[in-house]
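Need the bound structure for DP6, inputs here:
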Amino acid sequence: MRSARATACSNIALVKYWGKRADTDPDLNLPDVGSLSLTLADLATVTTVRPAVDGRDHFELDGVPLDGRPARRIAEHLDRVWAAAGLRGSRPACVVESENHLPTAAGLASSASGFAALTCAAAAAFEADLDDAALSALARRGSGSAARSIFGGFVRLDRGVRPDGSDCVARPVAGPDHWDVRLLVVRTTTGPKKVGSTEGMERCRTTSPYYRAWVETSEADLDAATEAVLDRDIDRLGPIMEHSCFKMHAAMMASRPPLLYWKGTTVDAIHEVWALREAGCPAYLTIDAGPHVKVLVPANRADEAAGRLRTVPGVEAVTIHAPGPAARVEVLP
Ligand code: DP6
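Answer from helper R.:
Posting the output first, comments after.
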């Protein structure tokens, strides 16, 4: 093997992924719904994969050695990439060093950019001849949202129906230059540790009476939102985006025990986005499995919207992100 470094940007879903197919191999990590995302500039993970001289795996994130579940997830992922590369013998031990280049203000999870960067760096290190669709399918097995971070701009991940997941593929719908929009990340007060996505999804699927309705109505959102993106129509995309977000959170809240990711400031920020809209600024929001609010606006309204959202009590920071590029990789000497 050789050494390689990959950079992948984070992404935010405009039409959400929440829930995994229960009829397939869990290792494939197949989503129960398709999703549509925007890859974001300036929120990237840079990951280097090198051969380990002492024959033992060693993983670091931002200079801190990893062990336990995070280390197991990385080791399993390296095994998957090795297997996909079709190489014989056991996987060589690797040193994996990852750095998250997220403004400390963002307060975002990084599994999307993290598993996308790891997949690209490992594939290059193992000299695997894989195209973007294959890299994306591998990244998905590390974390569902990572499948989308292989591509830049607006990305659609289809659910597919086949048991082997071969029709669950991500593809770019429109590149980063297609539409001059901005995504604001509104960081609200951070609270106690949330329930992680994987565990939250399973709880929601098995206990929420609204889970089926969530799944059954998401495909229509995906098609309508894709068309609105292609037409660059924020007033058509925005209501679908908010509907997808609130349906997902309604299904979460109806789980047992409930999954409530919002804080008081989250609700105040929601109302501020709606007040902005009443005042004529086309701003639309989405929220992931956490307390922060993400707001889509035309680029020329971003400063105005960010300024208003910074006045909401409890908001710690607002960062502004342009559409970001696809993941990239370089082979190191
Ligand atoms: C709410 O991709 O983190 O952000 O596949 O279990 O790793 P796993 O889940 P993950 O879930 C993301 C959920 C979401 C919505 C989205 O990004 O589509």
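Comments: The mean pLDDT is 96. The longest helix spans residues 211-230.
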